[in-house]
UniProtKB/TrEMBL annotation:
Subcellular location: Cell membrane
Membrane topology of this protein: Multi-pass membrane protein
UniProt xrefs under Pfam families: 7tm_6
Family: Belongs to the insect chemoreceptor superfamily. Heteromeric odorant receptor channel (TC 1.A.69) family.
Keyword list, A-Z: Cell membrane, Membrane, Olfaction, Receptor, Sensory transduction, Transducer, Transmembrane, Transmembrane helix
Transmembrane segments annotated in the record for this chain: 32-53, 65-83, 89-115, 136-167, 226-245, 257-275
Entry-linked PANTHER family: ODORANT RECEPTOR (PTHR21137), ODORANT RECEPTOR 19A-RELATED (PTHR21137:SF35)
Protein name (record): Odorant receptor
One BP term from GO: signal transduction
GO molecular function annotation: odorant binding; olfactory receptor activity
GO cellular component terms given for this protein: plasma membrane
Organism: Ooceraea biroi (Clonal raider ant)
Length: 365
């Protein structure tokens, strides 16, 4: 990447290089990174699914397992999307270290406040390695850390790159709006007819060209990532619902503080990620429709008749908002964020009612 705004993409470059997704390079190290990280994702997913083979799981435990299985699927989808869609570091370390600290609390407390017996070990994610988990606890913990680290870096890298695309699109809309606003300067309208017409033509062409570029870029972003948006949207709503369901499950007895802390952080990260995605979508809508308001508020009525007619076409086209659409059915916006939250809560209520019915049936039996 070699252009004037390169410094604004340094963070994206660092994050993408860390997980082997930086598109400008085909070194052997990059290939090794891809194979290594793909192996981590797939191996961890298999270890999660192994639990269903060897244990009888209650609905609450199934919800917790699925909560992390879906997150793993999101990591895999994001990572492979970064590989397949190339042509058309820090948050991971923090979260990974947080998991290690929470999982090591038992050892820390045993050293500071020893009891007659060792405290039970705690892993944030239910997995099955077909080995003695107490004996190989730290090996499992390192595998979990690598999974979380690579997954979070992948999410951050792809998300920041997409946000950079959207902000660039918003900037083009803003520049187009600025140029339209300054077409009708009073100083130009006081010039001679020939000079005035030439300047008006030039300014109008530049403004319309930028507006067309902005609209085309918004369409490209939608067409290129519509399927990815829809898949991630589906998984995101499901994961959020399972997370909230698990939160209510651990909140009721209040006997597992570590689970409550982890689940709360998990829900906050879900909400933050979904909100950011819809917020940048709202930015596209606001900047695209702002061109209509800007054009309407200019002194277009003082312009020559031919320019007034062209201005009507500009207002007609700019009255149609540009959006980031997922699967042709969902527009990223703040209203969309509210709908997603309402949908997630509805699913949680359904799951809780289903669980209550099952518990009542078991009591009757």
């Amino acid at each position: 990447m070699d252009f004037i705004g390169e410094q604004y993409y340094n963070l994206n470059r660092i994050l993408l290089v860390c997980v082997g997704l930086w598109p400008y390079g085909t070194s052997s190290l990059k290939k090794i990174q891809i194979i290594f990280f793909e192996a981590i994702f797939i191996s961890f997913l298999l270890c999660q699914l192994n639990v269903f083979l060897v244990k009888n799981c209650s609905i609450a435990k199934v919800m917790k397992i699925l909560m992390f299985v879906i997150i793993n699927c999101i990591f895999i989808i994001k990572y492979n999307a970064g590989l397949l869609l190339t042509d058309n570091v820090f948050i991971g370390i923090v979260i990974g270290m947080g998991i290690i600290i929470l999982s090591s609390i038992s050892f820390i407390l045993d050293a500071i406040i020893p009891l007659n017996e060792s405290r039970p070990l705690w892993l944030p994610i239910i997995v099955e390695y077909f080995v003695d988990q107490e004996r190989y606890f730290f090996a499992i913990l390192i595998h979990t850390f690598m999974f979380v680290y690579v997954g979070c870096i992948t999410i951050a890298a792809i998300a920041t790159m997409l946000i950079a695309y959207v902000l660039h699109n918003c900037a083009i809309f803003e520049v187009a709006s600025y140029r339209i606003e300054h077409i009708f300067d009073k100083t130009i309208l006081q010039m001679s007819k020939d000079i005035r017409q030439h300047i008006l033509y030039e300014r109008l062409i530049h403004a319309v060209y930028l507006h067309r570029r902005a609209v085309d870029l918004a369409n490209i972003l939608t067409n290129s990532f519509a399927t990815l948006y829809f898949i991630l949207l589906t998984f995101g709503v499901a994961s959020t619902s399972f997370s909230v369901f698990h939160f209510f499950h651990v909140l009721t007895p209040l006997n597992d503080v570590l689970e409550l802390i982890m689940t709360s952080i998990f829900i906050i990260l879900h909400l933050y990620y979904i909100y950011i995605g819809n917020y940048v979508g709202q930015s596209i809508i606001d900047t695209s429709t702002n061109i209509f308001r800007t054009t309407f508020n200019t002194e277009w009525y003082t312009a020559p008749l031919w320019l007034q007619k062209v201005t009507l076409f500009i207002m007609q086209r700019s009255s149609i908002k540009s959006t980031l659409t997922a699967g042709g059915i969902f527009d990223a916006s703040l209203e969309g964020f509210a709908k997603l939250m309402s949908m997630s809560i509805s699913y949680v209520m359904f799951l809780r009612s289903t669980r209550s019915q099952q518990e009542n049936t078991q009591e009757e039996l």
